[in-house]
């Protein structure tokens, strides 16, 4: 298991926290959620963001891909209208983020990958790997980012005592369980 202090120190020293984490403290951020204090609210988004940044660093992602995962982390649940199982909130979250001006509405590779990640994060992996309705050239990149994001989101299942590490897609994700537990204790 990776030491959470080392992870945070690395994210800080490499500039990940300064670049992305401040967005989660914007005064307007809570207003994007139907219920900011719910299990899919602000604190969940902050923890998923830190988990995504850790996975981005540990997997050597470039700045563009790290930025995509950061945006997905912050906004992936803002389209929710309840805390139950929902296969539509990813699509609704992406649309809401565009409507709020949080995501550019321009059709380009990066925005399409972001749309793919956000829309499909709440779907079964087999359904999510259908890329036909997206304008994405680098399909391998899109699937990799989706799986990394699903692991980030999945790691925060520690908050509901429902994390099954067998569902995590990457071995390095399994090494972040103690970090996810630390974030749950510290981000309140």
From TrEMBL:
Alphabetical list of SUPFAM superfamilies matching this protein? HD-domain/PDEase-like
Q: What is this protein called?
A: HD domain-containing protein
Gene3D superfamilies in the record, alphabetically?
A: Hypothetical protein af1432 (1.10.3210.10)
